[in-house]
Queue: 2 jobs
Job 1
Amino acid sequence: ADIQAGKKIAGTQCRTCHGLDGIAQIPVAPHLAGESEIYLRAQLEAFRSGKRQNEMMSVVAKDLSDEDIANVAAWYSAIRITAEMPD
Amino acid sequence: ADIQAGKKIAGTQCRTCHGLDGIAQIPVAPHLAGESEIYLRAQLEAFRSGKRQNEMMSVVAKDLSDEDIANVAAWYSAIRITAEMPD
């Protein structure tokens, strides 16, 4: 998959809600940073097929090609994340 | 919501796939670390009602009370995350 091509898609279609770095900008959207490619692809395919539904994502995913999905999933999964639990 | 009660639920029902710190242990599961309470609650309620379906989560969510959902969402959203984009 082509991470830079995925970054372009993220920069145009995803960043408003999910951020270019995958940290959600709005509370109804999930973070995508560091998610596995398997999970991201499965969700985008589910939104595209209608198996999973969301008023925003059903529209966004409709026109994504398999290649777009692979590339944008590669971009977000390439982001390194850390998690720190509260005491 | 009660973050410590949520930590207990996470430690028994969620950690195997999602990690206690919300970093997924298996590629088919998403990270939950730092996700907003609104998003986490909406997904757990959707799995419980059947609006969203997954072979694992439909079972796990079936017996969660509203209070359980609020508490476990509070735990995972309290985890601090950072994201670092590749160059």
Note: The interface with chain A takes residues 3, 19-24, 27-31, 33-39, 42, 51-53, 78-86 of chain B (CB under 8 Å).
Job 2
Amino acid sequence: MTENKRILFKSRPAGWVDASHFEVVVAPVGEPGAGEVLVRNIFMSLDPYMRGRMRDQKSYAPGFELGQVLQAGMVGEVVASNDPSLVEGDLVEGRLGWEAFSVAQVGSVNKVDGNVASLSHYLGVLGMPSMTAWVGLRNIGQPKEGETVYVSAASGAVGQIAGQIAKMQGCHVAGSAGSFEKAAYIMDELGFDAAFNYKEAGSLGDALAQACPQGIDVYFENVGGAMLDAVLLKVNPYARIVACGMISQYNLEKPEGVKNLGTMVGNKVKMQGFIVSDHMDLKPEFMAEMSGWLAKGKIKYREDITQGLENAPAAFIGMLKGENFGKQVVQIGEPPK
Amino acid sequence: MTENKRILFKSRPAGWVDASHFEVVVAPVGEPGAGEVLVRNIFMSLDPYMRGRMRDQKSYAPGFELGQVLQAGMVGEVVASNDPSLVEGDLVEGRLGWEAFSVAQVGSVNKVDGNVASLSHYLGVLGMPSMTAWVGLRNIGQPKEGETVYVSAASGAVGQIAGQIAKMQGCHVAGSAGSFEKAAYIMDELGFDAAFNYKEAGSLGDALAQACPQGIDVYFENVGGAMLDAVLLKVNPYARIVACGMISQYNLEKPEGVKNLGTMVGNKVKMQGFIVSDHMDLKPEFMAEMSGWLAKGKIKYREDITQGLENAPAAFIGMLKGENFGKQVVQIGEPPK
């Protein structure tokens, strides 16, 4: 247990990320100082926004530094503590390193209750991606009963929650994903009213018209580019576009142009970006509501769990290409018994 | 006075509008029926949104019909009335035809007080364009003291008012226009803090950086396309984009692509379209406030008055190309003495 496997950010990608941008190293396990704990990492979250942190430009999350260990949302177990607020055996979540063991300041991690749900769920349905869906709909989308809500990347970590919440609110809910299997999952398992595989749709406009026969009142936007352009031709008056992310653009050296923004004027459309970390005051409300839904079986959640830290780069690259099916997690260690 | 000059919508433009899309005809003056008045038209408003009405697609304003007289905001004098609510000599404004005399239902026109301001002002600073600026800032832009407000098409009918209101609210106000003369007017006469001629700016990004050294908090968007793209790279966190119109795109068969929408997520930007006619409940408040500002000399307003109905098509085409300097009006008849 003195060896720590770590993954460093080796070089900055210009277009698509590949294995050459990562370096796996072995280093000694760190020693926690005063007010610090040593965490044995168990589950790590991979999320599309992390691609943005690989750029050399200011953004809401600080960029990854070259030569340093990458960071991610993590759930782990405290194995040594130099602070009375945490003891050995406590389970915690926080933003830690892509590594087997992390030294963390006690204030940077939060205790989690391992009995509520699978530990990995704290990275998804009870964590940041799910709260992103919940906040985006609550603050921006504000779907009303009978309205049509369309969700892109609808089998992903955020999309599957956004669609299910909208469904509970009495909306016609449509979604798109990158395979027939995912589209079937969205309808058959998650209960969406309509779904399509955008990769095989002859025309996005026709696919949207079929999935959303009454037009689109709320677009939960995870994709950007051509998809956003197609949605802009289907928006109803006073539509809201929840600009959560635009993953189709993250690996392009030059983003695609969106041509149909003019429809926002005549249709009085609102498009608004947001970052979930601005809304942490809502976390208790979110946790209470989502835990309740989960306990009652009202929310389903699919995870795609890759085994082994050394496979995290490939899992991250695959996620950016849409190869995951459900929320992408990497299992680094065994959960406590 | 039995002859009525009228301008018909002859053919639908695909790209730029030209003279061939209009037809000047002479017809008999209409006879007002029950509940109708005959109006002698005096000033006609030409506005960029009218280009949208030339398209064969549903929009917030119904499209112009081929072979029919075009419509516009108008101020005129009642010369015959078949309803007790209006009498000969009353001055009215409403949406009437591109013609010397219009028959109108009494409910479709509003009496105006010819003593408050120049009659043409009811088409501009006391009319729809000015209320558009006022509503857009009030409901969407919501500039706060010390923030930076950037206005494109800033010497136009809407832009000049938007900038002056923002200046009264204690903002750093910058604007752009299509000539050095207009840029000088914006700064020297209207009191903007910075202005530039976008046609001669080597780089829109550099020009914006110089005009808005603290970034952009509110963008009053009249232009779209490349200008919007450049603004998206200068927005501050929580910026608001008031999507009022996108005139640079109106005559393109294929609109330009906007590439930088991704910055809306990280910067939590809101972009919202609106149509002033949704907000007519605010008209009394607007009229009271704007009349007060005008009377106190706090708002300046420049008009570009073309003489003669037969010159309206050329004035409209010129306005779409940015050749007007100030709010574009056509004088059709003489104001009453």
Note: The first helix of chain A runs from residue 49 to 52.
